[in-house]
Amino acid sequence: MKVTVPRNVRIALKIATSILPKLPQKGDSWLQIAVKTLGIMNSVDEIMFPSSHSQVQAIVDRYDLQVASNKQFVEIFFGTNLREQFKVRLTHTHSADHMKIIEADSDNYGRLLFMEGYRDGDVRCEFYHSKGMDFMALMNQLWEGYDGRIQVTSVKNTYGEQESALTTFNTCPNPLYGVLHGRMKHLVTRHRRFAVDKIPRTYMLYGPPGTGKSSFATQFAERLGSRSLRMEARTFATQDVKNMMFLLHSMQPDFLIIDDVDKADMSEDIPAILEIMQRFKSDHSTMSVIMTSNAITGFDPGFLRPGRIDTWVEFQLPEEAERLDVLTRYSEEFKVLATKEQIAGLTTVTAGLSHDYLREIAQLLRYDDAESVMSTVALMKKLQVPAAK
Fold first, then answer.
1. DSSP string covering 263-323, please?
2. Distance CA 244, CA 237 (A)
């Protein structure tokens, strides 16, 4: 027969058990009495108003939880659809140490336990989880919420601290016209041969801005995999490598796209990128890396050697034949009523302009007359001169 002991009786028994050994004895000095009295008061206070640490430990012991520490996971959990997979509730608040205890339960994934400083709203990197929690299965929910395309950016919170924020991104910002179309077909076929033997690849797409590197990277990843994780190289300085490895291991992307490597800090970002690439090449043969850069000068030679970057793909400003093809195709896309002579004239005067400029020029033909577009092209080229110096 199960006997239920009232809560106040249980508390009284705990207090009695705790304070009996601390009661002053005959012959104690006034200092000993004072120390024991303070000890009794602390014991009673701890039992009546347990600290957040004691409350956390009680929950950890009750559910046999394991401790972990990962800033990115905590930020992602509270900032994405992962939270929707759990019943999240505030279970304890302790005014003395300004802490909240947050429990999250799921029939599918288990239990999570977080601590938050309710005065500053900061959730600690440390958290607890059920034994055997399948973080990969949990991250599958994350991928579904972002349609297999996740962009990680570093943002400052209310208190000026760096946090990770997740968004999705467009896989086809611009069509691949001109030589980019043939290049895509060739590299996709080539990559599949490596994939058969489970050999991961690291690509460096480099060339002037606006030549299609980012569009190429996202579409290349889309054609060959179902999960693309995208980051700017500059964000690596704000990410701990250990935390990033936990995140990447759990998320298992097919492609990691790292944009604007030339804008990264050579002393902080690049070493982190290298370490992550090296670890994943040895541990995860199904993930490949695509980096983009406007230039390849200034890099440490060790960063450029084989084994770190396997395939170099140069993107150049389009020559005349390619400019004609790109302008013609964009004109068809925008349903522009321009003559062949007008397109040919624009092809000639757009020498030195990138694919992005050609797209904008073709679109202008839908709204402006050919003479106005020619004037705009002249201004575009004039404004480019200072940037080239």
1. GS-TTTHHHHHHHHHHHHHHH-TT-EEEEEES--TT--HHHHSTTT--EEEE-----HHHH
2. 11
CA dihedral 139, 145, 147, 149 (to 10 degrees): -60
283 with 310: CB under 8 angstroms? no
**Taking the CB of residue 333, how many other CB atoms lie within 10 A of it?**
13
- What's the rounded Cα separation, in Å, for the pair 208 and 388? 10
Write a three-state SS string for 43-61: HHHHHHCCCHHHHHHHHHH
Dihedral sign from CA coordinates of 185, 190, 193, 197? negative
What pLDDT does 44 receive?
56
Measured distance CA(241)–CA(255) in Å, rounded: 18
Among residues of the chain, what percentage have pLDDT more than 90? 42
Low pLDDT (below 50) residues in the chain: 2, 387-389
Q: Is residue 354 classed as helix, strand or coil in its secondary structure?
A: coil
Residues listed for the chain: 389
Exposed / middle / buried, residue 116 (Cβ in 10 Å: 0-12, 13-18, 19+): buried
Residues 85, 106 contacting (CB under 8 angstroms): yes
pTM for the structure as a whole: 0.79
**C-alpha distances out from residue 201 to 14, 249, 255, Å:** 62, 17, 10
**Residue where the block lists tokens 């992962």:** 82
- For residues 8 and 16, what is the distance between their CA atoms, to the nearest angstrom? 12
